[in-house]
């Protein structure tokens, strides 16, 4: 059996202004399967371990030894080295090269471990390929990539759990895309509040001469609107509480989800304040100044 050469990796002292690494007790890993040992290290607060393949008379992929050893108190930034039992590729070579008596054969054994580790790393990723497409199981670095597959833009300020949640839920919205329910869910997802979407409505009445000739605060010179193609998106938020980035995000979601032939109007909670404005012109009243009015 080829024994591993245990080495303890020391870490440099922290620089000025940097936080000191957390101290963690190294757990017992010898005898575990390599994948189980990786999970135990992650839960303990360590990063990915450094595997080293050795010949050993134990089941393959079993951790034979570790460095640092069990119970040692080390920094959380310390890389744990694991000696893992493997059947060397040297067994596929002629018998002459399998003997480890000479120095050349020993170097050949060690040289083949390098390529075997690289090969196993690739095959491990291929074996877990289905997991990469599962939103709740994939690695965080693949979340944005998965979002691009379903045309879902994940915002950079979202926490990881929110990204995973909507990656799983978003495909269900495509079966009802362009509907009030889908737009309500998406807007709530992006801005954090549930909007009130009012179909077949428009906040202003068009000014039509001969039909309605009153000009007031609620009248606006607009073309005639087909209400069957209009809707109003009302947000229970004050305008001053909404940032410019949020406004851009809201319009981007509505433009992407609404039917192409429809028109929308965005309102906020305090939009009714415009009724306090005074008209600058009236029709049907004497426009001359009152002579009795004081100068």
Give your account of this protein's structure.
This protein has 8 helices and 10 strands. With 295 residues, it is α/β, with parallel strands linked by helices. Helix 8 links the parallel strand 9 and strand 10. Helix 7 runs antiparallel to helix 8 (244-257).
Describe the sheet with the most strands: 3 strands, mixed
| Count of structural domains | 2
Oligomeric grouping of the chains: single chain
For the record, give the distance between the C-alpha atoms at the N and C termini, rounded to a whole number. Answer: 111 Å
Query: How much beta, percentage-wise?
Result: 5-15%
Q: Provide the succession of SSEs.
A: EHEEEEHHHHHHEEEEHE
CATH architecture of the largest domain: 2-Layer Sandwich
The tally of beta strands, per DSSP, is: 10
- Number of helical segments with 4 or more residues: 8
Q: Which structural class best describes the helix and strand composition?
A: alpha/beta
Contiguous runs where pLDDT drops below 50 for at least 5 residues = 1-11, 273-277, 287-294
CATH topology of the largest domain: Trypsin Inhibitor V, Chain A
Q: For this structure, what is the CATH class of the largest domain?
A: Alpha Beta
Mean pLDDT: 78
Biggest sheet: strands side by side, in what order? 2-5-3
The share of residues in helices is 25-40%
Record the SSE blueprint.
Layout: E1 23-25, H1 34-44, E2 50-54, E3 63-67, E4 73-75, E5 81-85, H2 95-98, H3 103-127, H4 129-132, H5 143-149, H6 160-173, H7 180-191, E6 196-199, E7 205-206, E8 219-220, E9 230-234, H8 244-257, E10 263-267
Parallel strand pairs: 2-5, 7-8, 9-10
Antiparallel strand pairs: 1-4, 3-5, 6-9
